Amino acid sequence: MAQSDAEILSGLADIINEETGLEQDLVQPDKSFTEDLDIDSLSMMTVVVNAEEKFDVRIPDDEVKNLTTVGDAVTYIKNAQG
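^ thats the sequence. predicted structure below, dont judge the formating
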């Protein structure tokens, strides 16, 4: 069953907090992973792997570059869950 945007956002915030120590309330849909949240490519790959496990989706490496904002990731995960 697909999760709501809010559930996915909350889950991503938890993952990002665990990886980077950023407060969950800073993880908002309009935030850029690299510019606003200062997540480097290595941390981003860890976030992706953890998101794949948490949300039971597959995010191909060539799709990761298209996920520039938290909102992009939420939308991708929601669509991948079907």
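The mean pLDDT is 96.
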